[in-house]
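Give me the fold.
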Amino acid sequence: MNGLKTVLAVVACVVSPALGTAAPQPLPWQREVSLREAAQSTALQGTLNLTDPGRSAMNINNLKMHTVIWGPPDRITISVTKNNVWDRRLHDFPAPALQEITEGAFSPANKDYVGVKEIDSSTFALVDIAGPASMAEKLAKRSDPLSAWLSERLDEKTKTSLAAFQASKPSYAQERAFLTNLVECFNAIIAGPSFFEDKRFQGVRLRPDTDGLRQGHPQGRELSRLNRLLLEDAYPREISRKPGNSLRPLDLGWLRKEGGSYDPYRYPMRYAFPCLKPVGQIILGIDPLAGTSAPHLTQSCANGVTRLQITNGSAKASLEYVLGMTQDTYAIRGNLTGISTPVWLRLYRHRDTYPS
């Protein structure tokens, strides 16, 4: 027993100093890698769902938007929902009786009510130039008396954008600059006096409506409409024809007996809590990739960029998608090889997102 006590005492003397000098253990939160650091080498993995934007599809989100990426390789689709749009879907409201509608319609309080607004279709918009290349060629070459007359009245910025548009295969920005400037010039021309002359319109077949309006010597808005019709008749392939002025109802409701209209069909409501509602879709069309298998998806946890590569024979697309965290902005970047057909981007908007 005395020998055992001696051994234990020696062991205690040897162990005790070691215990007293051991390094302090790190706290639990100090033993883990920070999320910011871990995100630098972490990525979410998945496969593009070809048919279903449901729970199995990869999400790309920010604080206001929940989006999913899905669809066939030749029609990669981003479906977008947001939690801050007005909801204009029909909701409960008391339907009016026929007597209420009649009393409101004949109420003295509504004697000055105008339920329609006039839509002016004389002025030009960019979409009215249906053949920009042909229009540019006629103006540049002054191929007929009217084109020569119009060419002399183009301002300097329009002449510059016309030259850039014709110099080589125009970019989208060059075409849009030319159309924007040309539309401004056309609107200034039709707002002025009549420019009809027999020699200037030699060989141009006028519609009966145009010729009848011309012979009436119109003034004001009718003169602008005549000038618009003259340009439409002179350039039937380059300028689209618009219908005449139309009347559009201001609302879809009914008049109150007390005065004023009530339109519950368009009265927007907003939920008191965040509730995601459909906003639209962004579809990227790359026809040569049709029929290939579903590509692999990776989403970086460091910067949120979602990447995928699609190969179909010699056609290859390397795509990157990113959604801003502070702004509701999508960016798509692609590197395409072996693809000779046009690549297009189509945006669908839900009706709840249209302006009031």
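The mean pLDDT is 83.
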